[in-house]
Design brief:
The complex is a heterodimer of chains A (445) and B (313). With 445 residues, chain A is an alpha/beta fold. Chain A has 21 helices and 14 strands. In chain B, helix 9 crosses helix 11. The longest helix of chain B has 32 residues. Classes of the chains: A alpha/beta (445), B mainly alpha (313).
């Protein structure tokens, strides 16, 4: 099976792989790959017909390409034969539909990478800060509901507490990849459309300009070096108490509570100096579901049935819960039973609130575009954002990015891309107008 | 009769043994058989991939587009008309030129300082060449840790030294991001220049300097009249080798700037990597590699031709 190299791969190496072998006698071989190689190697081995892999760990965005390319196999027949239907219904609605493409199921969703807001409760509840905010803005100091409010609160905290604490921090370094996720969530929450009816990029719009302006304002209110941070550096800044608000992947909450750091594998992350002081909130507007992972069955597997059964077992409610609870693993809750789990809820004092917030975020969450060329579109956004942080004109940068998007669309075929995009729009969470909540499918714990 | 028989026996003994047809062929081509495995290995590992990459650059080899249709010069066209590709080539020339020039000057100065024996010379030399053995990825990471705000100490130290607050974005603000990349490269590769030039300096016969000294030549004149001409071939060799390596600059950029902001620190190698392994447009990346190879070959040809002509005066 393929797995992302590093911490991710410790789960099948140390936990699920050995346990599966103990239960079935089947040995597993974990092939660690960098994230881009999880796509390119799968395709290359398929072209070579090597049958090198049985189970593929893939980004949901790659599903259409890999399905149409014959690299992965549909699971519908196996699901009908082997799966308890209740296990499928246990997925949060945002994630349940993610491996679906052209009416077939092409994998099991396996990593709830939902962005959420993590903020310092002690600062937000400090009477002096509350009073000062009230006096300045005639409003209560509370987790922000809009992006304008977010930048305003960040600036307020920086003005009041810098250089000890800054209002916010973001991972804005080129390629990190916070820029693409952040832009996509804010842009769509601001009413921006990714593509028009003619498949021309919609980026160079008022929503695009507004999004970049909001992001620039947030950057200005943030910790010095904000634009040089990657995800790990941002965690370090938050955990050491230098930053009052961050929005990032779910491990942020576990690290802030010092739960993750109990594993030696992850001890490069500093100990949290803010444990017990962190509150959870939904990111203003609509949070991004930043990538995630699907387990997919390789179409060239020599043992497809056994491979499928491993996937089903690893993603089943109890096993997936145990995998999400591993302190060193980076798999995050995605099943309704995960969010409701008493076991998980007892991992650290605020774990129940943490799980509830992840569930609520998924109710209004947005999916990354799932279509061929996604990596080209993402790269253009990253280049655009970092150019703007370095002083380039917002409108001109949006136009450059839009031109790159159009070139990508032309290269892959306008009609073909339109068909993929139409499929994507059918998924809950594809736009701010069809979130799980707006479709009436919100999960209440 | 007996005499004749003896003579013919002697003749037969001196004649080469009678061989089968295959053995005769093998005997004639023995030298070729000896080199054949090496030639086949080179063909398989070097020529075949090279030819395959040439084929790939004329077809569609994009993981996202099914099939491998012949597209003529389309892949080359995409590279030539891509402003990012043109910028990356320009930056490569500019960045490698400046880095190598600084490394050369510093390497020469250090080599001139270290050519004479003094106490502790061995220890200092060992320390000086340490960066040469460090992986460029680690070098990039080390400099990131030193320069990155808010954790790196560089701005703090500069603030203390200058007495006013320094808030430079070493990896996001122009021109500082170029300065950072050049500093990291110079730190790692100056020892390479130093080692080669030191070898050249120690090879100059000392009697030339003794004779010059007797003639009343000062140090500066000796440098121009003796050191420089004798060191010239080594200088050109060091510059050629280093320049060839510098134009492939990738690792430190990957770690320190990620090619950003925007595409401001895309070198040719970083551009090709991005097109090939982030965007998966392998045929375009291959076509770009061939174009880059042509440019590189031109530079190499000029330098090697000059190197072959250079002889000590």
């Amino acid at each position: 099976m393929t797995y992302e190299a590093g911490l991710q791969a410790l789960d099948p190496r140390n936990f699920s792989g050995p346990m599966w072998e103990q239960l079935t006698g089947m040995k597993s071989n974990v092939v660690e790959l960098s994230n881009p190689d999880q796509y390119s190697k799968a395709v290359a081995e398929h072209i070579a017909g090597s049958g090198a892999y049985d189970v593929l760990d893939i980004s949901p965005a790659w599903t259409p390409s890999l399905a149409d390319g014959g690299v992965i196999a549909p699971l519908d027949d196996y699901i009908a034969k082997y799966m308890n239907p209740a296990d499928l219904e246990d997925y949060h609605p945002l994630y349940k539909a993610l491996p679906t493409y052209k009416g077939k199921i092409w994998g099991f969703f396996d990593d709830g990478d939902m962005f959420a807001l993590y903020y310092r409760k002690d600062i937000f509840e400090d009477p002096k800060m509350v009073e000062a905010y009230q006096a300045k803005f005639n409003a209560k100091l509370a987790p922000p509901k809009t992006w304008e409010e977010y930048a305003q609160i960040a600036q307020f905290i920086t003005d009041q507490m810098a250089p000890n604490v800054y209002g916010a921090g973001h991972f804005r370094k080129a390629g990190s990849p916070g820029n693409q996720f952040d832009f996509l969530q804010q842009y769509r929450a601001n009413g921006g459309k990714l593509f028009g009816d003619d498949m021309k990029a919609g980026l160079a719009s008022d929503a695009g300009v507004k999004t970049l302006q909001n992001m620039i304002a947030a950057n200005a209110a943030s910790i010095p070096g904000n634009n040089e941070l990657d995800a790990v550096s941002l965690w370090a800044a938050f955990l050491t108490g230098k930053v009052a608000m961050i929005y990032s992947w779910p491990p942020s909450g576990r690290m802030a509570a010092n739960y993750s750091q109990s594993a030696t594998a992850i001890n490069f992350i500093p100990q949290s100096q803010i444990a017990g002081k962190v509150g959870y909130a939904v990111v203003p507007g609509n949070p991004e579901h930043a990538t995630g992972y699907n387990k997919a069955l390789s179409a060239d597997s020599a043992n497809p049935e056994a491979a499928y059964l491993f996937m089903q077992w690893a993603c089943s409610p109890p096993v997936s819960l145990a995998r999400c609870m591993l302190p060193y693993a980076l798999r995050d809750p995605y099943r309704i039973s995960h969010f409701k789990s008493e076991l998980y809820g007892a991992l650290f004092p605020s774990a129940k609130e943490y799980l509830s917030n992840l569930n609520n975020s998924a109710n209004v969450g947005l999916l990354d575009p799932i279509m061929p060329g996604a990596q080209d579109y993402f790269l253009s956004i990253d280049r655009m954002c970092t150019a703007v942080w370095a002083g380039a004109d917002s409108k001109a940068s949006l136009e450059t990015a839009a031109a790159e998007w159009n070139e990508t669309t032309d290269r892959l075929g306008v009609d073909s891309q339109k068909a993929f995009y139409t499929e994507f729009l059918k998924l809950p969470g594809a736009t701010a107008d069809n979130t799980v909540e707006k479709l009436g499918m919100a999960v209440t714990l | 009769m007996q005499h004749t028989a003896t003579i013919s026996r002697l003749k037969a003994a001196g004649a080469p043994p009678r061989l089968s047809g295959f053995a005769q062929w093998a005997d004639r081509h023995f030298k070729w058989l000896l080199v054949a495995p090496a030639v086949l290995l080179i063909l398989a590992l070097s020529v075949y991939p090279l030819l395959f990459s040439l084929v790939v650059s004329f077809i569609n080899y994009d993981f996202q587009v099914p099939g491998h249709a012949f597209v003529g010069l389309k892949n080359f066209e995409r590279v030539v008309f891509d402003p990012v590709a043109r910028w990356s080539l320009l930056l490569t020339a500019w960045l490698s030129g400046i880095s190598v020039a600084i490394e050369f000057v510093l390497g020469l100065l250090v080599a001139l300082t270290m050519v004479r024996s003094f106490p502790g010379r061995g220890v200092i030399m060992s320390i000086l060449i340490v960066p040469l053995f460090i992986s460029p990825v680690i070098v990039g990471q080390a400099w990131t840790l030193l320069l990155q705000r808010p954790f790196g100490p560089t701005n703090y130290i500069l603030t203390q030294l200058l007495g006013q607050e320094v808030t430079i974005g070493w990896m996001t603000e122009s021109p500082w991001l170029y300065v950072s990349l050049i500093v990291a490269d110079v730190w790692q590769w100056t020892p390479f220049m130093f080692v080669i030039l030191l070898a050249g300096l120690t090879a100059i016969p000392p009697n030339l300097y003794e004779a010059a000294e007797l003639d009343g030549v000062n140090a500066w004149q000796a440098f121009w009249a003796i050191t420089l001409p004798h060191l010239a071939p080594m200088m050109l060799l060091a510059l050629t080798f280093r320049l060839l390596d510098a134009i492939r600059m990738f690792d430190t950029i990957f770690i320190m700037t990620g090619g950003g902001p925007g595409t401001r620190t895309y070198t040719a190698s970083y551009y090709l990597y991005t097109v090939g392994f982030t965007q998966f447009h392998l045929s375009q990346a291959t076509a770009g590699s061939w174009l880059f190879l042509v440019f590189t070959a031109l530079v190499v040809m000029l330098l090697v031709r000059r190197l072959l002509k250079t002889e000590p005066v």
